[in-house]
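Sanity check record (used in CI):
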Amino acid sequence: MRPLEDRHGSGLARASEPVIAVSQLGKVYASGFQALRDVDLEIRRQEIFALLGPNGAGKTTLISIICGIVNPTSGRVSVGGHDIVRDYRAARTKIGLVPQELSTDAFESVWDTVKFSRGLFGKAPDPAYIEKILKDLSLWEKRDTKIRALSGGMKRRVMIAKALSHEPEILFLDEPTAGVDVELRRDMWNMVRRLRENGVTIILTTHYIEEAEEMADRVGVISKGRIVLVEEKAALMRKLGKKQLTLHLQEPLREIPQGLAVAGLELSADGTELVYTFDAQADQTGIADLLRRLTERGVDFKDLNTSQSSLEEIFVNLVGNRS
Ligand SMILES: Nc1ncnc2c1ncn2[C@@H]1O[C@H](COP(=O)(O)OP(=O)(O)OP(=O)(O)O)[C@@H](O)[C@H]1O
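Expected output for ATP-binding cassette domain-containing protein:
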Protein backbone atom coordinates (compact mmCIF):
# COMPACT_ATOMS: atom_id res chain seq x y z
CA MET A 1 0.00 0.00 0.00
CA ARG A 2 1.29 3.44 -0.87
CA PRO A 3 1.65 5.70 2.13
CA LEU A 4 -0.45 8.85 2.12
CA GLU A 5 1.82 11.74 1.30
CA ASP A 6 1.70 15.06 3.02
CA ARG A 7 3.77 18.08 2.15
CA HIS A 8 5.96 17.96 5.19
CA GLY A 9 6.35 14.23 5.26
CA SER A 10 5.40 13.94 8.90
CA GLY A 11 1.62 13.56 8.84
CA LEU A 12 -0.29 11.23 11.10
CA ALA A 13 -0.85 8.70 8.32
CA ARG A 14 2.90 8.16 8.15
CA ALA A 15 3.80 8.53 11.78
CA SER A 16 2.79 4.99 12.66
CA GLU A 17 4.63 3.40 9.74
CA PRO A 18 8.18 2.22 10.24
CA VAL A 19 10.62 4.70 8.78
CA ILE A 20 12.84 1.78 7.75
CA ALA A 21 11.54 -1.70 6.96
CA VAL A 22 14.04 -4.50 6.42
CA SER A 23 12.62 -7.80 5.32
CA GLN A 24 14.30 -11.18 4.87
CA LEU A 25 17.61 -9.50 4.14
CA GLY A 26 20.59 -11.65 3.26
CA LYS A 27 24.14 -10.85 2.20
CA VAL A 28 26.73 -13.20 0.79
CA TYR A 29 29.99 -11.42 -0.07
CA ALA A 30 31.90 -12.32 -3.25
CA SER A 31 34.23 -14.40 -1.07
CA GLY A 32 31.26 -16.65 -0.32
CA PHE A 33 31.02 -15.40 3.26
CA GLN A 34 27.45 -15.05 4.51
CA ALA A 35 27.41 -11.83 6.50
CA LEU A 36 23.63 -11.48 6.99
CA ARG A 37 20.82 -14.00 7.01
CA ASP A 38 17.03 -13.56 7.23
CA VAL A 39 17.21 -10.13 8.83
CA ASP A 40 13.83 -8.58 9.61
CA LEU A 41 13.84 -5.21 11.32
CA GLU A 42 11.55 -2.21 11.58
CA ILE A 43 12.79 1.15 12.77
CA ARG A 44 10.22 3.55 14.16
CA ARG A 45 10.11 7.20 13.28
CA GLN A 46 11.99 9.41 15.72
CA GLU A 47 13.41 6.66 17.86
CA ILE A 48 17.01 6.13 18.92
CA PHE A 49 17.83 2.54 18.01
CA ALA A 50 21.07 0.91 19.10
CA LEU A 51 22.33 -2.04 17.09
CA LEU A 52 24.59 -4.00 19.36
CA GLY A 53 26.90 -6.82 18.39
CA PRO A 54 30.44 -8.17 18.63
CA ASN A 55 33.12 -7.63 15.97
CA GLY A 56 32.16 -9.07 12.64
CA ALA A 57 28.49 -9.59 13.59
CA GLY A 58 27.24 -7.77 10.48
CA LYS A 59 26.40 -4.30 11.82
CA THR A 60 28.29 -2.35 9.17
CA THR A 61 27.05 -4.66 6.43
CA LEU A 62 23.45 -4.06 7.50
CA ILE A 63 23.72 -0.29 7.61
CA SER A 64 25.75 -0.22 4.39
CA ILE A 65 22.91 -2.06 2.63
CA ILE A 66 20.29 0.29 4.07
CA CYS A 67 22.38 3.24 2.91
CA GLY A 68 22.77 1.78 -0.58
CA ILE A 69 26.54 1.30 -0.38
CA VAL A 70 26.47 -2.51 -0.44
CA ASN A 71 24.03 -4.55 -2.54
CA PRO A 72 21.88 -7.11 -0.77
CA THR A 73 21.90 -10.71 -2.01
CA SER A 74 18.28 -11.27 -1.01
CA GLY A 75 15.42 -9.52 0.72
CA ARG A 76 14.11 -5.98 0.66
CA VAL A 77 14.67 -2.66 2.40
CA SER A 78 12.48 0.42 2.23
CA VAL A 79 13.37 3.81 3.65
CA GLY A 80 10.54 6.29 4.13
CA GLY A 81 8.45 4.11 1.84
CA HIS A 82 11.11 4.05 -0.93
CA ASP A 83 12.71 0.78 -2.01
CA ILE A 84 16.48 1.20 -1.70
CA VAL A 85 17.19 -0.57 -4.98
CA ARG A 86 14.34 0.58 -7.25
CA ASP A 87 14.13 4.06 -5.79
CA TYR A 88 17.71 4.57 -4.65
CA ARG A 89 17.96 8.36 -4.82
CA ALA A 90 14.73 9.08 -2.96
CA ALA A 91 15.70 6.59 -0.26
CA ARG A 92 19.30 7.79 0.03
CA THR A 93 18.32 11.47 0.35
CA LYS A 94 16.50 10.67 3.57
CA ILE A 95 19.66 9.29 5.15
CA GLY A 96 22.73 10.84 6.71
CA LEU A 97 25.58 8.41 7.39
CA VAL A 98 28.51 8.93 9.72
CA PRO A 99 30.82 6.06 8.77
CA GLN A 100 33.38 4.39 11.00
CA GLU A 101 36.29 5.50 8.83
CA LEU A 102 37.25 9.14 8.55
CA SER A 103 37.21 10.06 4.88
CA THR A 104 37.23 13.69 3.88
CA ASP A 105 39.10 15.81 1.46
CA ALA A 106 42.14 16.96 3.44
CA PHE A 107 42.75 20.11 1.42
CA GLU A 108 39.26 21.59 1.64
CA SER A 109 38.09 23.92 4.39
CA VAL A 110 35.47 22.76 6.86
CA TRP A 111 32.91 25.13 5.38
CA ASP A 112 33.48 24.06 1.77
CA THR A 113 33.43 20.35 2.60
CA VAL A 114 30.09 20.58 4.36
CA LYS A 115 28.61 22.88 1.72
CA PHE A 116 29.74 20.49 -1.01
CA SER A 117 28.15 17.50 0.73
CA ARG A 118 24.81 19.27 0.76
CA GLY A 119 25.15 20.01 -2.95
CA LEU A 120 25.74 16.31 -3.68
CA PHE A 121 22.17 15.63 -2.60
CA GLY A 122 20.85 18.30 -4.95
CA LYS A 123 19.77 20.58 -2.12
CA ALA A 124 19.79 24.35 -2.68
CA PRO A 125 22.55 26.16 -0.77
CA ASP A 126 21.53 27.26 2.72
CA PRO A 127 24.39 29.07 4.47
CA ALA A 128 22.27 29.74 7.58
CA TYR A 129 21.66 26.01 8.03
CA ILE A 130 25.34 25.12 7.53
CA GLU A 131 26.24 27.82 10.05
CA LYS A 132 23.85 26.28 12.55
CA ILE A 133 25.26 22.76 12.28
CA LEU A 134 28.84 24.01 12.47
CA LYS A 135 27.94 25.99 15.62
CA ASP A 136 26.09 23.01 17.13
CA LEU A 137 29.16 20.87 16.58
CA SER A 138 31.59 23.49 17.92
CA LEU A 139 33.21 23.79 14.48
CA TRP A 140 32.27 27.39 13.74
CA GLU A 141 35.65 28.77 14.80
CA LYS A 142 37.30 26.28 12.47
CA ARG A 143 35.12 26.92 9.44
CA ASP A 144 38.02 28.23 7.32
CA THR A 145 40.55 25.67 8.53
CA LYS A 146 41.67 22.94 6.14
CA ILE A 147 40.56 19.49 7.22
CA ARG A 148 44.14 18.16 7.41
CA ALA A 149 44.92 20.75 10.10
CA LEU A 150 42.16 19.50 12.40
CA SER A 151 42.50 17.12 15.33
CA GLY A 152 41.04 13.60 15.04
CA GLY A 153 38.05 14.57 17.20
CA MET A 154 37.35 17.61 15.05
CA LYS A 155 37.56 15.52 11.89
CA ARG A 156 34.90 13.30 13.40
CA ARG A 157 32.74 16.36 14.04
CA VAL A 158 33.18 17.28 10.37
CA MET A 159 31.96 13.81 9.38
CA ILE A 160 28.83 14.42 11.42
CA ALA A 161 28.34 17.89 9.90
CA LYS A 162 28.65 16.36 6.42
CA ALA A 163 26.11 13.68 7.27
CA LEU A 164 23.66 16.34 8.46
CA SER A 165 24.32 18.78 5.61
CA HIS A 166 21.31 17.74 3.53
CA GLU A 167 18.84 17.71 6.46
CA PRO A 168 18.29 13.94 6.55
CA GLU A 169 15.33 12.39 8.37
CA ILE A 170 17.44 9.45 9.48
CA LEU A 171 20.96 9.53 10.87
CA PHE A 172 23.20 6.46 11.03
CA LEU A 173 26.16 6.58 13.37
CA ASP A 174 28.50 3.63 12.88
CA GLU A 175 30.54 3.15 16.07
CA PRO A 176 30.29 6.85 16.86
CA THR A 177 32.34 6.87 20.03
CA ALA A 178 35.11 4.42 19.18
CA GLY A 179 38.33 6.23 20.09
CA VAL A 180 36.54 9.45 20.97
CA ASP A 181 37.30 11.57 24.04
CA VAL A 182 34.81 12.25 26.81
CA GLU A 183 34.00 15.75 25.63
CA LEU A 184 33.16 14.73 22.09
CA ARG A 185 31.18 11.79 23.36
CA ARG A 186 29.09 14.10 25.54
CA ASP A 187 28.60 16.62 22.71
CA MET A 188 27.62 13.79 20.43
CA TRP A 189 24.95 12.51 22.76
CA ASN A 190 23.57 16.00 23.30
CA MET A 191 23.42 16.47 19.57
CA VAL A 192 21.67 13.12 19.09
CA ARG A 193 19.02 14.07 21.65
CA ARG A 194 18.47 17.47 20.02
CA LEU A 195 18.17 15.90 16.58
CA ARG A 196 15.60 13.46 17.85
CA GLU A 197 13.58 16.32 19.36
CA ASN A 198 13.59 17.83 15.87
CA GLY A 199 12.10 14.68 14.38
CA VAL A 200 15.21 12.80 13.26
CA THR A 201 15.42 9.01 13.67
CA ILE A 202 18.80 7.81 14.91
CA ILE A 203 20.39 4.41 14.46
CA LEU A 204 23.74 3.76 16.04
CA THR A 205 25.93 0.70 16.06
CA THR A 206 28.11 -0.07 19.00
CA HIS A 207 30.03 -2.73 20.89
CA TYR A 208 29.46 -0.81 24.06
CA ILE A 209 26.53 -1.89 26.13
CA GLU A 210 26.74 1.25 28.29
CA GLU A 211 26.26 3.34 25.20
CA ALA A 212 23.07 1.52 24.31
CA GLU A 213 21.94 1.77 27.91
CA GLU A 214 22.52 5.49 28.02
CA MET A 215 21.01 6.49 24.72
CA ALA A 216 18.66 4.04 23.10
CA ASP A 217 14.89 3.70 23.15
CA ARG A 218 15.22 0.22 21.69
CA VAL A 219 18.10 -2.17 21.39
CA GLY A 220 18.69 -4.76 18.68
CA VAL A 221 21.33 -7.44 19.12
CA ILE A 222 22.99 -8.94 16.06
CA SER A 223 25.23 -11.98 16.14
CA LYS A 224 26.74 -13.92 13.25
CA GLY A 225 24.55 -12.13 10.77
CA ARG A 226 21.26 -12.75 12.57
CA ILE A 227 19.14 -10.43 14.66
CA VAL A 228 18.78 -12.33 17.94
CA LEU A 229 16.80 -9.78 19.93
CA VAL A 230 14.95 -6.51 19.49
CA GLU A 231 13.54 -5.04 22.65
CA GLU A 232 12.57 -1.79 24.34
CA LYS A 233 15.44 -0.73 26.50
CA ALA A 234 13.09 -0.39 29.46
CA ALA A 235 12.20 -4.09 29.14
CA LEU A 236 15.87 -5.01 29.03
CA MET A 237 16.42 -2.94 32.12
CA ARG A 238 13.73 -4.92 33.89
CA LYS A 239 15.69 -8.05 33.05
CA LEU A 240 18.67 -6.27 34.48
CA GLY A 241 16.64 -5.83 37.63
CA LYS A 242 16.63 -9.61 38.17
CA LYS A 243 18.63 -10.72 41.14
CA GLN A 244 19.65 -14.11 42.41
CA LEU A 245 19.84 -15.30 45.98
CA THR A 246 22.04 -18.36 46.49
CA LEU A 247 21.68 -20.42 49.64
CA HIS A 248 24.60 -22.76 50.38
CA LEU A 249 22.97 -25.73 52.12
CA GLN A 250 24.29 -27.64 55.14
CA GLU A 251 23.12 -30.94 53.62
CA PRO A 252 22.63 -31.55 49.90
CA LEU A 253 19.07 -32.07 48.69
CA ARG A 254 17.95 -34.52 46.01
CA GLU A 255 14.97 -32.37 45.10
CA ILE A 256 13.19 -29.25 46.22
CA PRO A 257 11.01 -30.31 49.20
CA GLN A 258 7.26 -30.30 48.70
CA GLY A 259 5.65 -27.04 49.60
CA LEU A 260 8.82 -25.14 48.81
CA ALA A 261 8.57 -25.24 45.04
CA VAL A 262 7.95 -21.69 43.89
CA ALA A 263 8.61 -19.99 40.57
CA GLY A 264 12.24 -18.98 40.31
CA LEU A 265 13.60 -21.53 42.80
CA GLU A 266 16.07 -24.11 41.51
CA LEU A 267 18.46 -26.64 42.93
CA SER A 268 22.02 -26.45 41.63
CA ALA A 269 25.64 -27.50 42.29
CA ASP A 270 24.67 -31.17 42.86
CA GLY A 271 21.96 -30.23 45.29
CA THR A 272 24.21 -28.17 47.55
CA GLU A 273 22.74 -24.83 46.54
CA LEU A 274 19.27 -23.41 46.27
CA VAL A 275 19.14 -20.55 43.78
CA TYR A 276 16.20 -18.16 43.86
CA THR A 277 15.80 -15.69 41.00
CA PHE A 278 13.57 -12.72 41.76
CA ASP A 279 12.68 -9.29 40.51
CA ALA A 280 14.63 -6.80 42.59
CA GLN A 281 12.20 -4.03 41.70
CA ALA A 282 9.07 -5.86 42.83
CA ASP A 283 7.33 -4.78 46.05
CA GLN A 284 7.39 -8.35 47.34
CA THR A 285 10.53 -10.30 46.50
CA GLY A 286 9.28 -13.42 48.28
CA ILE A 287 12.59 -13.84 50.13
CA ALA A 288 11.17 -13.51 53.65
CA ASP A 289 8.51 -16.08 52.84
CA LEU A 290 11.05 -18.48 51.32
CA LEU A 291 13.38 -18.28 54.32
CA ARG A 292 10.49 -18.84 56.74
CA ARG A 293 9.36 -21.96 54.86
CA LEU A 294 12.92 -23.31 54.69
CA THR A 295 13.21 -22.99 58.46
CA GLU A 296 9.81 -24.69 58.93
CA ARG A 297 11.02 -27.67 56.87
CA GLY A 298 14.34 -27.87 58.65
CA VAL A 299 16.44 -26.98 55.61
CA ASP A 300 19.55 -25.33 57.05
CA PHE A 301 22.02 -23.25 55.13
CA LYS A 302 25.52 -22.17 56.09
CA ASP A 303 25.82 -19.11 53.90
CA LEU A 304 23.94 -16.98 51.42
CA ASN A 305 24.80 -14.41 48.82
CA THR A 306 23.07 -12.36 46.16
CA SER A 307 24.11 -11.41 42.66
CA GLN A 308 22.65 -9.29 39.93
CA SER A 309 22.73 -10.05 36.21
CA SER A 310 24.02 -7.29 33.99
CA LEU A 311 23.08 -6.35 30.47
CA GLU A 312 26.55 -7.56 29.61
CA GLU A 313 25.63 -11.07 30.82
CA ILE A 314 22.31 -10.99 29.02
CA PHE A 315 24.20 -10.02 25.89
CA VAL A 316 26.86 -12.70 26.28
CA ASN A 317 24.16 -15.31 26.91
CA LEU A 318 22.22 -14.29 23.85
CA VAL A 319 25.22 -14.18 21.58
CA GLY A 320 26.80 -17.29 23.09
CA ASN A 321 23.65 -19.39 22.73
CA ARG A 322 23.51 -18.93 18.98
CA SER A 323 26.89 -20.31 18.12
N1 LIG B 1 33.80 -6.96 1.42
C1 LIG B 1 33.78 -8.05 2.16
N2 LIG B 1 34.11 -9.26 1.65
C2 LIG B 1 34.05 -10.37 2.41
N3 LIG B 1 33.69 -10.40 3.71
C3 LIG B 1 33.36 -9.24 4.25
C4 LIG B 1 33.39 -8.00 3.53
N4 LIG B 1 32.98 -7.01 4.36
C5 LIG B 1 32.74 -7.59 5.56
N5 LIG B 1 32.95 -8.91 5.50
C6 LIG B 1 32.78 -9.89 6.59
O1 LIG B 1 31.44 -9.86 7.01
C7 LIG B 1 31.35 -9.99 8.42
C8 LIG B 1 30.56 -8.82 8.99
O2 LIG B 1 31.33 -7.64 8.86
P1 LIG B 1 30.78 -6.24 9.37
O3 LIG B 1 31.81 -5.21 9.04
O4 LIG B 1 29.40 -6.03 8.84
O5 LIG B 1 30.71 -6.50 10.93
P2 LIG B 1 30.52 -5.47 12.13
O6 LIG B 1 29.45 -6.05 13.00
O7 LIG B 1 30.29 -4.10 11.61
O8 LIG B 1 31.92 -5.59 12.84
P3 LIG B 1 32.79 -4.49 13.63
O9 LIG B 1 32.12 -4.34 14.93
O10 LIG B 1 34.11 -5.17 13.74
O11 LIG B 1 32.81 -3.25 12.80
C9 LIG B 1 32.78 -10.08 8.92
O12 LIG B 1 33.11 -11.43 9.13
C10 LIG B 1 33.60 -9.49 7.81
O13 LIG B 1 34.88 -10.08 7.76
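The radius of gyration is 25 Å. If this sentence no longer matches the regenerated C-alpha coordinates, the check is flagged for review.
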